[in-house]
Amino acid sequence: MTGPDLSALKPALPNIKNHGREALREEFKRAGLPAYRADQVMAWVYVRGVEDIDAMTDLPLDLRKRLAATWAVRALDLVDLQTSEDGTRKLVLETADHELLEAVLIPEERRNTLCVSTQVGCPLACSFCATGKLGLRRNLTVAEIVDQWARARAILSEDESITNVVFMGMGEPLLNLAAVKESIQIFSEPRTLGMAPRRITVSTSGVVPQIRPLLEIGPINLAISLHATTDEVRDELVPLNKRFPLEVLLGTLRQEELVSRKRPVFFEYTLMEGINDSLEDARRLSPLLEGIASKVNLIPMNSHDGSVYRAPKAAVCDAFAAEVHASGLRVTLRRNRGRDIDAACGQLAARTTSGQGHSSQPRSG
Ligand code: SAH
Ligand code: SF4
Questions:
Q1: Does residue 337 sit within a domain?
Q2: Active-site residue 26, yes or no?
Q3: CA-to-CA separations, 39 to 43, 44, 189, 214, 345, in angstroms, rounded
Q4: In 3-state terms, what secondary structure has residue 330?
Q5: Do 57 and 151 sit in the same domain of this protein?
């Protein structure tokens, strides 16, 4: 892999990828340029994957020179790429101010899902999550969220594409809502990437006041990190539960406007041995989620350095899933992807550049 070329990041300049179509047209108009020039630039960047403004040959030469001097296109450098035994790829990415973050590309039979980060670290400190151990370093910009797509696209072959985006990487998306919404605009912009909203999923640990504002953007999928069936256990696992307890969170999801979206809510439930894996827990789920069109995703805990939690034995996970299924809920027990390279849920904890790291070898988990 070639080393990072940070000079190309041009941190002092405004970045094309910070703006959805409407906003970029406005920016161009303000600079005295016709709005369609913004469309041309976006087509180069997102459809053709060209980031060098000098190479945008349907723009007049003097305009290319002017834009290249005043705009940046890239926001991240790929500093490490690790491939798991199952084909999952983890991209370690560096911002212009030398923060590290991770994005994960998950190939499946008929789709390629990209899992993007929204913050460097996370302030919510869930007790089982590696990212939560970092605390919040800062929010990512729109360009840094969208550039995770660009860097991942660049490692795919010509005939492949990213079909789905999940906001399930580092950070809490609803604490960086404006940037998340603008990046969804960019991913779903019909003239360029045109990703259908149903191919986009935002996961939250339950920042209740921001759920409705998020869903104003359209029929995207909402995933809620539930992980427990009582406030007592959830307070331990997801400290945010003390501010927005189960009744408040689930009550919000039961409200008319959200129910009328006609899209199921995905509930993520990380199974932890001896903590939330009992059959009583399994039986409590269905009454708890009453009135919400739900799909439950069970994820066996991914252990990481410093975590005291473990995944239950396979038979316990299977029994839990069977019990949830028997109660009439739709449920899947997820296979862990990318576990051997610490790319699985909750294992994302890119080190800062001041720390050690950047091995190009997959770490054994
Ligand atoms: N902050 C958001 C999105 C990122 S976390 C949220 O919490 O929803 C993505 C998912 O991975 C969440 O459901 C999270 O609870 C789960 N997760 C975190 N740590 C995990 C771990 N060690 N094992 C399995 N899942 C984990
Ligand atoms: Fe933050 Fe989500 Fe990890 Fe909780 S699980 S610390 S909200 S990234």
A1: yes
A2: no
A3: 6, 9, 11, 26, 36
A4: strand
A5: no
Number of domains in the chain: 2
Please indicate, yes or no, if residue 296 is contained in any of the structural domains.
yes
Instruction: Give 83's contacts (C-beta < 8 A, 6+ positions apart).
Output: 89, 341, 362
Residue 12 pLDDT: 80
One domain, residues 50 and 159: no
- pLDDT above 60: residue 218: yes
Q: Is 350 in the pocket of ligand 1 (CB under 6 A)?
A: no
Reading the block at residue 22, the tokens are 């409407």
The answer to whether residues 56 and 121 belong to one domain is no
> Would 356 be classed as within a structural domain?
no
Residue 80 has pLDDT above 50, yes or no: yes
> Are 110 and 84 part of one and the same domain?
yes
Q: Which domain holds residue 47?
A: 16-70
Question: What does the pLDDT read at residue 10?
Answer: 66
Best substitution site from 139, 174, 299 to test ligand 1's pocket, by max atoms within 8 Å of Cβ? 299
- As a whole number, mean pLDDT of residues 40-48 equals 97
Please pick, among 51, 94, 99, 102, the residue that the annotation labels catalytic: 102
Residue nearest to atom 17 of ligand 1 (CA): 346
Confirm whether pTM is higher than 0.90: yes
